[in-house]
Write a structure and sequence with these properties.
four-stranded mixed β-sheet; CBS-domain; about 450 residues; 3 domains; alpha/beta; single chain; about 60% helix; Hypothetical protein af1432
């Protein structure tokens, strides 16, 4: 095995295991999928950079690893392939079909090597989804068919194999080509919830912006000696600085990347996926920082500020995360009230958990604090009630009870670390991404109410 491939296998396996990511349906370690994609690519190419990128293709989307980290460890060519294979759509772009169209357009312009890896990814995912989740497979098949239409530069053998896999899946499902996915009508609860909470949710979302946490971006001319730039950055404890081309800040350098000659020699141009306007949402900031080490902020089209993951520890972000978790808990509580009226949900809790809630309610009532029994449940208790029902499990995006229980554990960890002022970026970054996406979903749902 080529050394580059060996290192990529080790790196990807470790970062996915670190967050205990598993395949949705089989609960097997995620590297099972990565290995399958790498083997499919290996069947048509011996290019070590392609095979390494196959191992790494989901790291930026699913783990705390960034494009910048991939480039530092594996080089520019592998990082470029991973960038091409990473979705560029944001939760705020719209519903699933809109986001898939954006990502499809991105993939259409990818290189032949990246498209070949994408074909391998589709093949393995199609086999897995068709076998384990016939309901979602209908949606996936339609999306895969649309994607295959733009993967014309990929390996011809894999393209034919992907088409055959798709046909086999459709045959198994009894589905015709191009059926099209029709979203389900909103449930009574969804309409109720959107109407009840949309004003508070929108006000909350508008309250926090990049302006609350961004730091001014110090910039230098492209021909400034790197030694001078490094001295200024070290003196002012700057990890990153802007680089001016013809008077306009168009790229950046990190302290560690500066060489011996000019600062522009090691500068990196801003990628469109890492630049936001000052009026963007914090959910968009989280989305950028899930892909890159830094998020750059513009005012009137000029890059003037920067946000790193370290800035996410600021009190404003902690307030925002607590707020998102609180709105999520409100949603869970109302869902339980609607589907398990008159405390019917109590039969789904253990005697110990129910006893704690009952004792807390009695104490609050003694203090003249009116409350219902459901208000005395812990966040995890509410989630456990919801996932006991298959329809609720699906509604909140969980493929299995096991996956939901892992999310419960992770969200409780994030909440505890926030409450106690602990470092939540190192330990809970995937959960920050998860609840940021949840915030965008809630905002999009409320926009449906008139």
């Amino acid at each position: 095995m080529h050394e580059l491939v060996r290192e990529a296998r080790k790196f990807s396996t470790e970062v996915h295991r670190r967050i205990d990511q598993r395949r949705k349906y089989t609960n097997k370690p995620y590297e099972v999928h990565l290995k399958a994609v790498a083997q499919i690519v290996s069947s048509v190419s011996d290019d070590p950079e392609m095979i390494a990128a196959a191992w790494l293709h989901d790291t930026v989307e699913d783990t705390p690893a960034t494009i910048d980290e991939i480039e530092a460890v594996f080089g520019t060519n592998v990082a470029l392939l991973v960038r091409e294979l990473t979705d560029v759509s944001k939760p705020s772009d719209g519903n699933r079909s809109v986001r898939k169209a954006i990502d499809r357009a991105h993939t259409e312009h990818a290189s032949a090597r990246a498209q070949t890896i994408k074909l391998a990814d589709l093949i393995d995912n199609c086999q897995d989804i068709c076998r384990e989740d016939p309901k979602f497979a209908v949606v996936f098949c339609n999306e895969m068919e649309a994607m295959l239409a733009v993967l014309k530069k990929g390996d011809e053998r894999l393209h034919k194999r992907a088409e055959k896999t798709l046909l086999q899946c459709r045959s198994r499902l009894g589905q015709e080509s191009g059926v099209g996915y029709q979203p389900e009508e909103l449930s009574p609860f969804e309409r109720y919830y959107m109407s009840e909470h949309q004003r508070a949710l929108r006000t909350f979302a508008r309250t926090f912006t990049p302006a609350d946490i961004a730091e001014p971006l110090r910039s230098f001319d492209v021909v400034r000696p790197a030694s001078e730039v490094k001295e200024v950055m070290q003196t002012n404890r700057l990890l990153v600085a802007g680089v001016r081309y013809n008077g306009k800040v168009s790229g950046f350098v990190s302290l560690n990347s500066l060489g011996e000659d000019l600062c522009g020699d090691t500068a990196t141009k801003f990628h469109r996926t890492q630049v936001l306007t000052i009026g963007a949402s914090l959910t968009e900031v989280v989305d950028v920082l899930s892909r890159h080490d830094y998020c750059f902020i513009t005012v009137l089209g000029e890059v003037v500020a920067v946000i790193g993951r370290g800035d996410m520890h600021k009190p404003v972000v902690r307030m925002w995360l607590f707020g998102v978790i609180s709105f999520t808990e409100i949603q869970y509580t109302d869902q339980i009230r609607l589907f398990w009226p008159d405390n019917a949900w109590s039969e789904l809790l253990s005697r110990e958990r129910l006893g704690r809630a009952t004792a807390l309610q009695k104490e609050r009532l003694r203090r003249n604090q009116p409350c219902e029994l459901i208000d005395c449940l812990q966040f995890g208790d509410k989630l456990r009630i919801l996932i006991s029902d298959k329809k609720q499990l699906e509604r909140f995006g969980f493929k299995s009870a096991g996956a939901a229980k892992r999310v419960i554990k992770d969200l409780e960890s994030l909440r505890n670390n926030l409450a106690h002022g602990q470092d939540f970026i190192s330990n809970d970054w995937p959960q920050v991404i998860r609840i940021a996406k949840r915030m965008e979903i809630m905002m999009r749902e409320t926009s449906l109410v008139r």
